[in-house]
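Students often ask why we bother encoding 3D structure as a string. The short answer is that it lets us treat folding as translation between two languages. Here is a chain of 235 residues written in the first language.
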Amino acid sequence: MELRHTHAHEHLGLPARTAKVAMILELPKTPADLLKSLEGRVRNQIKQSQLACLTVEEGQSEKLDDFYKVFVRNMRDLGTPSYPRRFFASFLRHMGERARIYIARHPNGRPAAASLTLTWNGRTEVPWASSVRDYNPLRPNNLLYWTMIERAIERGERAFDFGRSTEGGGTYRFKAGFGAKPHRFHWHYFLPAGGGALPGLNPENPKFKFAIAIWQRLPVPITRLLGPRIVRGLP
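And here it is in the second language, the structure alphabet:
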């Protein structure tokens, strides 16, 4: 059994992992204040995507098809099975106005990046965000995240939660470029009688390398069909 906490609970006496962090940005009063605080590199990347005439749209269920198209493609490229479309449809239906979809769109009309956010308790969280690698040179992710943060500030929110990252990894560095700070997770484990090694049920585990490589080579329609059947058995 895996218990995921935001604080250490040493009194439990359980083995723990602490490699994952939440990347959280404390929001200033205005978007202009945040823009001034960004590294020149990040400001240039946002400007680069604007000069490429990318645009960002905000919506809900009417944007789900575009979001899911990007999500499934990105998960295939990562070598990970994806949730079914109906999962996100249910999420949007139950969360109502708290859930929003953002689409970064190329001038050719195709979605280049997409995200699904949840607003609660004075913050916006990004549980799911994806991009199409073909468009990465145009920096759609930078414009996507800048727009989400800008809207959160305009709504008067206090914080923007970029979601979970492995400390020092690529997504960690991307989020840190916007000024997000790490808040460490503590994952504690009840192990079978007799103990043993902590479970490694994650893509970094070498024993999944072969399966990931195969998945990355499958056509997207096949992964869209098979992914939901597989992902229900993954923790």
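Translate back mentally: The first strand starts at residue 2 and ends at 5. Keep this in mind for the problem set.
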